[in-house]
Amino acid sequence: MAKVEKKRSLSEERLRDFLREMLLIRRFEEKVEERYRAGDLPGFLHVAIGQEAAEVGVCAAMDDGDVFGSTHRAHGHTLARGTHPNALMAELYGKLEGCSHGYGGSMHLYDVERGNLGANAVVGGGIPSLVGAGLAFKLRDEPRVAVAFFGDGATNTGTFHESLNLAQLWKTKTLFVCENNEWAESTPGWQHSPVWDDMSKRALAYDMHAIKVDGQDVERVYAAASEALDHVRSGGGPVFLDLETYRMHGHYIGDAQVYRSKEDRDEAAERDPIVRLREKLELSSEDWEALEEEVHEIVEAAVEFAKNGTDPQPEDALKNVYA
Amino acid sequence: MAKVEKKRSLSEERLRDFLREMLLIRRFEEKVEERYRAGDLPGFLHVAIGQEAAEVGVCAAMDDGDVFGSTHRAHGHTLARGTHPNALMAELYGKLEGCSHGYGGSMHLYDVERGNLGANAVVGGGIPSLVGAGLAFKLRDEPRVAVAFFGDGATNTGTFHESLNLAQLWKTKTLFVCENNEWAESTPGWQHSPVWDDMSKRALAYDMHAIKVDGQDVERVYAAASEALDHVRSGGGPVFLDLETYRMHGHYIGDAQVYRSKEDRDEAAERDPIVRLREKLELSSEDWEALEEEVHEIVEAAVEFAKNGTDPQPEDALKNVYA
Amino acid sequence: MQYREAVNDALATAMRADEDVFLMGEDIAEMGGSMGVTQGLFEEFGAERVRNTPISEMAIVGAGIGAAMQGMRPVVEIMYEDFLTLSLEQIVNQAAKHRYMSGGQLKVPLTIRTQGGAGWSPGAQHAQQLEAWLIHVPGLKVVFASSPADARGLLWSSIYDDNPVIFFEHRLLYPIKEDVPEKLEPIPLGKARVVREGTDVTVIATGPLVHRALAAAEEAEADGISVEIVDPRTLQPLDEETLVESVKKTSRAVVAHEAVTRMGFGAEVAAVLQEKAFDWLDAPIERVGAKFAPLAFAPAMEQFIIPQPADVLAAVKKTLARS
Amino acid sequence: MQYREAVNDALATAMRADEDVFLMGEDIAEMGGSMGVTQGLFEEFGAERVRNTPISEMAIVGAGIGAAMQGMRPVVEIMYEDFLTLSLEQIVNQAAKHRYMSGGQLKVPLTIRTQGGAGWSPGAQHAQQLEAWLIHVPGLKVVFASSPADARGLLWSSIYDDNPVIFFEHRLLYPIKEDVPEKLEPIPLGKARVVREGTDVTVIATGPLVHRALAAAEEAEADGISVEIVDPRTLQPLDEETLVESVKKTSRAVVAHEAVTRMGFGAEVAAVLQEKAFDWLDAPIERVGAKFAPLAFAPAMEQFIIPQPADVLAAVKKTLARS
Ligand SMILES: Cc1ncc(C[n+]2csc(CCOP(=O)(O)OP(=O)(O)O)c2C)c(N)n1
Ligand SMILES: Cc1ncc(C[n+]2csc(CCOP(=O)(O)OP(=O)(O)O)c2C)c(N)n1
Ligand SMILES: [Mg+2]
Ligand SMILES: [Mg+2]
Predict the structure, then answer these.
(1) pTM of the full structure
(2) CB within 8 A of C204, min separation 6: which ones?
(3) Of A11, B15, B138, C109, which residue is the least packed, with the fewest Cβ within 10 Å?
(4) Which whole number is the average pLDDT over D67-84?
């Protein structure tokens, strides 16, 4: 049933859920930028503003029991897979109540109960373990899928190559999701990858099934991800999902983007996936205000929760080194 | 001129040279097997019996000034690029007169004067340095090509992926030569690579120009290699040369090949590149005997030279660690 | 039972006892591993649980991590220690840190078997001893077995340990024999073994040096020197207590391993002993290890580089020279 | 001149002096490096000599090796030390061994710059200190500069050294300032620097610990303790003479670095000192380094893990407690 529903075009209600989720992620990350600039948050952080359709479209298509791993840019996937904003914000504040209990930070978000096996700060480094999870699902004959999120820059790593090669060879239950946001830090696609304009070509080296879709259109992303997940889940082998998306802000919070032209940044407006969905849904300004209000309260509550969280004791640093 | 000549079909005389070279390599390696089994040679060795057409075809198409790197199976490339059989055999005997002065051994054959930048015992490990050499040739605007020899199994390594990706991105003067001999040690192609039956698909992930050819036909290999080298030399970017060849013997000398079916081994006869060339040239038995005789003497002389070579002193081990 | 058989027996016994234990590695199936260690396991357990892999040291370790995080107990074989250099990102940044970064949510019960060791002229890339690197990494356990019984009992414990364990075997030890009990007896990680009792000097040795130290001890005996030999067996966690106790008894210590002396395991042991047995030491702690050079091919040079029984004996006598 | 500017100045000066010097690294061009170290170099030297690379740590080091073997002097930047784990095969099996395996035919004048260092909550994968690994590898030179003048003079010497040099910088040192001569003065590799003269105890420190040791020394002074501080600067080759001399003078030693204590550089120094200054030592050599845990995100835990001035002071006092 669920699968059938997925194939059909989405109900307006479902699309409104997507919009709420995308807006929540957007406002959450804007708040994170604000709090970081205010000096509240330690470490360094990366937001995915502009990539919400890709995140929500894929995550909404995943089933309970599916697992995933993400990157240094993982706030969106984490929220979209059900981690409470309070737990995420608390992690960014380095509190014990955080989803990684203060040990991980923004680049190492975990929530194993919800299938989040970890955001990874080594580009490409998180991919192979999703091949292993997909192998375990296959060996145990479980209808679960392991989803690996990564960026365009990651396709240049040897880890990426070995992982896709092995997954295809063994037909592991793994979905590879490439969020091609046109940048690897300060390096534009054309400067880092010979197939930057069509990342799906990467899959050809493995005879892997690939699906390419506009990553700014959450409906299309959802449909493509659903199709891909069905394919993987039913034992058809791994799939490479190529999402063309867009990084509206800097690589990290505080990135002056000296390397980026004004024109390029101005694209932002047209390519904003939230604006697109809002227009499609022809939301009345009342509904929009209501939505903003709802999201605003969630985000503010998250900050409150995080600020009142518990700081780990210094000695806690020696815990969790070994099982 | 040279290039034009290359494009034309080869003179019988040239083909006879190829046959001599291939036979020399064959008899040299058979002798190596014999001497190893007799306990003369330390370490462990890999012969490329059955792959002589691939080795000679490519090496004959290379120009003076071109450089190359090979693998654990490098006797053929080394001889075909002009290293004296005496120097090679002396290396296998661990003598100071060896092409690596006894420091390298069979898996680490060097002859820098002749462009041999080293055989590598780490699968894939030698490839990136040929990208670097090709980059240097490009930066210095030199009409030279860096050739990377590797096997089918090497295409599964991350090193391979990063190297081809970078070479294509930067259009380095590098030729990638994949000798697909259908085996990676005991692992058949279908067990180690999803595109084992058409390795040229690897190049698609980089939009790299690829040429596929029967690696048992030295004429075809020579023609394809010449075309590829011209393309690279003239700045057209790297090329992936996919040679379908065949490993007639075990992975290493002494390999019982328990993993290999009799049928598979029986193919050997039909696929022997030397038999094929000999038949094509319709060599009279006299000519053949003469050739065998000539080659035999060279090989015997090499063994003599090697046996009478100088053993390094123990303390020599501390030399050449730093420049 | 041979050392090789002991490793094989531990693997087979664990696989019979537990469906979740499975093997991944290059050429471990039909061929039974390039050292013959996994012979017979493919026949008994089949291709699903004895998995031949592509040459992808990053991905197979990463796949092991992912399967381990799903509760399986994968045992990955890295054919030669030298190729750990390719897996290190996955081992050090991923396997060792997932539990910590997740604040204790995850376990990674992965075992990585590898082997190395010189003395058979494989050259510079096939015999390095790199255990020291892993000892430097919190989150990993490191084992180095010197006898069949230890290999058998420690490998079992490694497989059932809930942390990533790097299990080092030594090429030259595979053929050594020793009587072992019918039934496998697990040996807890973190416990050293007093290999030989003595009163004048303690030799702390690992792997092959345990045997070379025994040979040296016999000779020393002839000169009336009583040598105690202690094998830490587990290098991380290190059984400092047993080591220190022995040195407090003998007042003299030699640390011996095949790895390069500089920055080798012996440095850590010396640092620990000089701190914890300072007032007991009658002589400087002597270190015995490989000389500071890569491994040369020519036997005379290779033997000069790696530590021999004579080197251990000389060190023993040196500690006794002053009193 | 800032430490950051000093590195930049050494690069620029070398590039102006020599066409063969060029840079490769991720985001080093328009962005000027993620730490801003290469700012302005792209503008001055252009895209051919300041090369933005894909995220391919294996290939860019390998390409550096290949270009170096052609006589160029590439300087490769590995953005974070943690990613050296990906380059290690190329560094250890290739760069360090080509000269040796070729019996002296080749030189690899490659410099690899990298940086690390905790204290800013980047989490477990962005601040490790891994210099110890490289010190274990014959064929490499290892530098770790603690001041602007040292960084400038040592980097120059590293670039012009004919061997592969791993040049470690520290994230927290980039902003520190010091007066330096107008003209760059090369500093020979292999010479330690006495940072502060003292008579009671010698603190051998690297990188940031030199500065934390200075702070500790000031406090100690107040208690009438005279601390000598020696910075080896080059960890391989190690200036044992200067270290031993100082300890023979003070009879007490502390080794301090930010890397994990277990199996860290301090272990090697302690092993050397206890051997060469045995009769002079009045107390055990104390080691100060990171506690045995990955780096935690939450500041309180991270600060607890990494060594502080107070830890150095405590170690100093401990060596003086017994006399
Ligand atoms: C192996 C490795 N190299 C370099 C870095 C530094 N770095 C962090 S993110 C990034 C760019 C990644 O680009 P992409 O994969 O497209 O992801 P995006 O940042 O666009 O989401 C780089 C170079 C890293 N974290 N890991
Ligand atoms: C990184 C690495 N992994 C494993 C090995 C062990 N090994 C040596 S040769 C070989 C097979 C290589 O196959 P291929 O690349 O096809 O070359 P071929 O032996 O067929 O010439 C393996 C697995 C190695 N040398 N290096
Ligand atoms: Mg990107
Ligand atoms: Mg092959």
Answers:
(1) 0.98
(2) C229, C230, C231, C232, C243, C246, C253, C254, C255, C256, C266, C269
(3) A11
(4) 98
